[in-house]
């Protein structure tokens, strides 16, 4: 049900409704850049959007489009493609913040909006490795010395796409399992996702905090790593070589991340 609010709100009014403490405190649901700079800037974008007729779901649509454009940008050869991809990844983050802020301001939060948001994130992270794999495939195919590595790399990129989506989906599977079992919604707190440190899984999870590799498996971080690899390839004078190794390293590492994610969920109190 929509809420009648001022058509030209001040920034303070928007922050009070759109960025309440319970939203800013969602450490597990918020991207690490949210408190660093996203929420400080997204409110200005929200201020513009609430003055238009675009709905919160429409803003989510812009978020999805930005994510898809990120993948398409990777098909542009050289440094410019990854640079553009990083730009679209940042734009996606701002729209991702603003769609919820617009929904809270207008009182139009809905399961449909949450569903569309999840579709956006899943499809974006599925398309990135596929686009990267095709980019590397085209670059390796043009060099006789690396041509034999082109098809295996493309296949590994497709496998990586599946694993990235699986890793993200595991968290949703926990919520779905709890819902089907008649359990309540988990709060967005670290305590609700804790694993006893006395267990082997708990100790391994504690060690993972010192090397949070799993945090690299999101669109923003992947875009930055791809850009760094593109720079290395350009310096080496062999297009796609660093990106190829990125795929080859990420694939087995993401297998381990998925296994760790599964064991962590099974050992926590979330499924009990």
Keyphrases for this structure?
272 residues; Four Helix Bundle (Hemerythrin (Met), subunit A); mainly alpha
Task: Give me the secondary-structure topology.
Blueprint: H1 11-18, H2 21-24, H3 33-49, H4 56-73, H5 80-106, H6 111-141, H7 150-180, H8 200-208, H9 219-236, H10 241-267
By CATH's scheme, which homologous superfamily applies?
CDP-alcohol phosphotransferase transmembrane (TM) domain
**Could you spell the SSE succession in H and E letters?**
HHHHHHHHHH
CATH topology assignment: Four Helix Bundle (Hemerythrin (Met), subunit A)
Question: Helicity range of the residues?
Answer: 55-70%
- Please indicate the count of domains: 1
The residue ranges in which pLDDT falls below 50 over 5 or more consecutive positions are: none
User: First CA to last CA: what distance?
Assistant: 35 Å
**Mean pLDDT figure:** 85
Tertiary shape: globular
**Number of H- or I-type helical stretches:** 10
Q: How many strands, which pairing sense, and closed or not: the largest β-sheet?
A: none
Describe the protein in words.
- This protein has 272 residues and is mainly alpha-helical.
- The protein has helices spanning 11-18, 21-24, 33-49, 56-73, 80-106, 111-141, 150-180, 200-208, 219-236, 241-267.
- It has a single domain, classed as CDP-alcohol phosphotransferase transmembrane (TM) domain (Four Helix Bundle (Hemerythrin (Met), subunit A)).
- The protein contains 10 helices and no strands.
- Helix 4 (56-73) packs antiparallel against helix 5.
């Amino acid at each position: 049900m929509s809420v009648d609010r001022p058509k030209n709100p001040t920034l303070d009014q928007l922050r009070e409704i759109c960025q309440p403490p319970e939203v800013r405190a969602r450490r597990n649901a918020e991207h690490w850049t949210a408190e660093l700079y996203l929420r400080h800037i997204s409110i200005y974008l929200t201020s513009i959007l609430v003055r238009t007729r675009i709905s919160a779901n429409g803003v989510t649509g812009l978020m999805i489009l930005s994510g898809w454009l990120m993948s398409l940008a990777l098909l542009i050869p050289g440094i410019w493609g990854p640079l553009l991809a990083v730009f679209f990844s940042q734009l996606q983050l701002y729209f991702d913040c603003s769609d919820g802020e617009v929904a809270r301001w207008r009182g139009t939060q809905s399961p449909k909006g949450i569903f569309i948001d999840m579709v956006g994130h899943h499809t974006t992270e599925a398309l990135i490795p596929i686009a990267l794999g095709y980019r590397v495939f085209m670059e390796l195919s043009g060099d006789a010395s690396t041509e034999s590595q082109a098809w295996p790399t493309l296949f590994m990129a497709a496998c990586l796409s599946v694993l990235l989506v699986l890793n993200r989906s595991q968290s949703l599977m926990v919520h779905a399992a709890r819902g089907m079992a008649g359990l309540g919604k988990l709060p967005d707190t670290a305590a609700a996702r804790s694993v006893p440190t006395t267990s082997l899984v708990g100790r391994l999870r504690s060690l993972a905090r010192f090397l949070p590799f799993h945090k690299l498996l999101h669109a923003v971080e992947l875009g930055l790593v791809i850009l760094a690899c593109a720079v290395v390839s350009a310096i080496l004078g062999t297009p796609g070589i660093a990106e190829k190794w990125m795929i080859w390293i990420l694939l087995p590492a993401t297998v381990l991340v998925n296994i760790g994610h599964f064991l962590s969920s099974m050992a926590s109190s979330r499924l009990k």
